[in-house]
Every structure is written in C-alpha cells, then in structure tokens.
C-alpha cells in the first residue's frame, strides 16, 4: 500500500493523538546472528512512520527495533535460510486514516541495521514514511527503494565494495534527496518521481561510466554534478526550465564542455514537466 500526502502534512498527522491510541503503542526488538551466509535477499516493507537504516553490529545478520500501534500494524520478521531471503518491516492491518491532531509520540518508528560486508539484493518499500537511510556500510548488488509520500534522505557515505548492477529509486508525493550516488558503484540508475522536489547528488568515488534515467512528473529536479565529470543530457521536457550554462548542444543531446577530456562520464536521460531542472557544479571532493 502506498499513501499519498499533500505537501506539508507531517507524519504525526497520520495518527490520532488521543491517550487511548497512545496506550496501544508497543515496542519490539528482533535480531539474528550471521551463520555462514554468503549473500542475502532482503525485502523491507514499512507502511507509515519514521524509518532509519543503520549498520548492524559486527556478527549480526540484522537488528530491528520498532515502535508501532498494535491495533493498526503487524510486525514482519521472516527468514528463510534455504533461499537466503529476509522479510522485515511493518504491515498495516487495514487503512491508515488521517487525523486532525497528532504528536510525535504517536508516530511509529523502525530502526533497521543490516549486515556489513555481506552481498545484498535489497528492496525497500515504504508508504507514508519519513526516511533517513545510509547505504554506505552495505555491500550492494542491487538496490530498489520506493516511497509513497513524505520525505526521504538517502546517503551513500562510503564506496560500495561491490559492482552494483542497478539502482532504482521511486518517490510519490515527496521531498527526495539522494547524496553520494557515485559511491553506490551502480552502472545503471533509474529514478521515478511523482510530485515534489528531487535532489540527486552524483558526488563520490567514480569507478566507471554511469547511465541514469530520470522521470519527474511534476516538480523540481536538482542535479549536483562534480566539476570534473563529463555529462551528456538528453531532455524531454514540457514547461520545465533548464539552464544550459556549461553545455553545448549537438543534435538532441547537451554535452558538458569537458565531455571529450573527462575521465568519468555520466549519461542522463531526463524527462520532466511543469517544473525546473537545475544543474549545480560542485567540488569533486565534496
């Protein structure tokens, strides 16, 4: 289930602030140690609340701490050792309704730690969630991140030790920020945006070419690009502004002035409507 929230609606407004509702909140912790796993397929489902991704302690397959409304949500923690599949998160028992009043104490939370150094195929599916996730401690083969509403801050704070095949980011009505995308070490990147503001920061340790498809239905797209990166952009835009400074157009493609001499290159396909596309050149060591 994906929830769509209008801009400015806070997570606290999703949950009733009455004392009766507060009494249904409970906490739960779950963890599992590593037992010789060589790889892991992880699926995280979280309907609504605050989501945090952090590194697990040494020797742990995963660690999960959550606070949830047991009348509305069901915790998920299922591991199949034979297939190497891990299911984690929180699912809704029914429809999560909006409330006119709310407070932070009645917002569910999920803090998740995943194994460091273990090759992961990771899928995260969030509904109305405020997310803060750092993938810099993980060894990613593939990553799919989807959110329905609210705000996501994603970071790739350290280089991925593995060659990642694909990175897919999907956002509904949201403010979406992804920082250090070069550290993901993914050859193919796909970004799907609904309504909102999307910021994509392509700084980090570049170890080869990258191609990225970016689709934004309604909103603003901000691209932070290292000044020494060669960039080629193909645009499909409708009533969306684009500053061409630093680019030369050849046919349907805009090439950065350093395209022919750059050591690393990014090829972008950008589709946007009713908004703006902003290019910001930044220090490569940022």
What does this structure look like?
- It is a single chain.
- This protein has a 15-stranded mixed β-sheet that branches.
- Helix content is 1%, strand content 62%.
- The chain is an all-beta fold.
- Residues 1-10, 12-23 and 97-102 have low confidence and may be disordered.
- It has one helix spanning 19-22, and strands at residues 25-33, 40-55, 60-69, 73-80, 85-92, 109-114, 119-134, 139-155, 164-179, 186-201, 210-226, 230-242, 247-250, 253-256, 265-282.
For the biggest sheet, the summary is: 15 strands, mixed
What structural category arises from helix and sheet content?
A: mainly beta
Give the tally of β-strands. Answer: 15
Mean pLDDT: 86
Which fold name corresponds to the CATH topology? Pectate Lyase C-like
Which radius of gyration do the C-alpha atoms yield?
20 Å
CATH class label: Mainly Beta
Low-pLDDT runs: 1-10, 12-23, 97-102
Shape: globular
Individual helix count: 1
Strand content: over 45%
Helix and strand run = HEEEEEEEEEEEEEEE
Q: Judging by the overall fold, what is the CATH architecture? A: 3 Solenoid
Helix content range of the residues, please?
under 10%
User: How many structural units, i.e. domains?
Assistant: 1
End-to-end C-alpha gap: 37 Å
Question: How do you describe this structure in short?
Answer:
The chain is an all-beta fold and 286 residues long.
What layout of secondary structure does this protein have?
Layout: H1 19-22, E1 25-33, E2 40-55, E3 60-69, E4 73-80, E5 85-92, E6 109-114, E7 119-134, E8 139-155, E9 164-179, E10 186-201, E11 210-226, E12 230-242, E13 247-250, E14 253-256, E15 265-282
Parallel strand pairs: 2-5, 2-6, 2-7, 7-8, 8-9, 9-10, 10-11, 11-15, 12-15
Antiparallel strand pairs: 1-3, 3-6, 4-5, 12-14, 13-14
């Amino acid at each position: 289930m994906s929830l769509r929230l209008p801009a400015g609606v806070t997570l606290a407004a999703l949950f009733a602030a009455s004392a009766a509702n507060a009494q249904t909140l409970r906490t739960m912790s779950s963890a599992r140690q590593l037992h010789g796993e060589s790889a892991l397929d992880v699926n995280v489902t979280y309907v609504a609340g605050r989501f945090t991704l952090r590194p697990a302690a040494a020797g742990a397959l995963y660690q999960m701490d959550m606070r949830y409304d047991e009348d509305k949500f069901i915790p998920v923690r299922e591991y199949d050792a034979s297939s190497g599949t891990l299911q984690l998160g929180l699912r809704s028992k029914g429809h999560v309704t909006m409330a006119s009043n709310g407070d932070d104490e009645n917002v569910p939370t999920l803090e998740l730690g995943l194994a460091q150094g273990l090759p992961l195929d990771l899928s995260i599916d969030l509904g109305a969630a405020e997310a803060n996730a750092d993938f810099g401690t993980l060894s990613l083969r593939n990553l799919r991140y989807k959110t329905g509403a609210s705000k996501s801050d994603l970071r790739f704070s350290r280089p991925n030790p593995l060659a990642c095949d694909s990175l897919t980011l999907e956002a509904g009505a949201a403010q979406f920020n992804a920082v250090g995308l070069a550290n993901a070490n993914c050859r193919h990147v796909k970004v799907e945006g609904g309504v909102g503001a999307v910021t994509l920061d392509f700084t980090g340790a570049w170890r080869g070419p990258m191609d990225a498809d970016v689709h934004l239905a309604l909103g603003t797209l901000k691209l932070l690009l290292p000044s020494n990166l060669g960039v080629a952009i193909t645009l499909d835009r409708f009533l969306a502004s684009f500053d061409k400074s630093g680019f030369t157009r050849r046919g349907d493609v805009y090439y950065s002035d350093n395209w022919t001499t750059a050591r690393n290159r990014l090829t972008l396909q950008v589709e946007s409507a009713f908004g703006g596309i902003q290019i910001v050149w930044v220090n490569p060591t940022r």
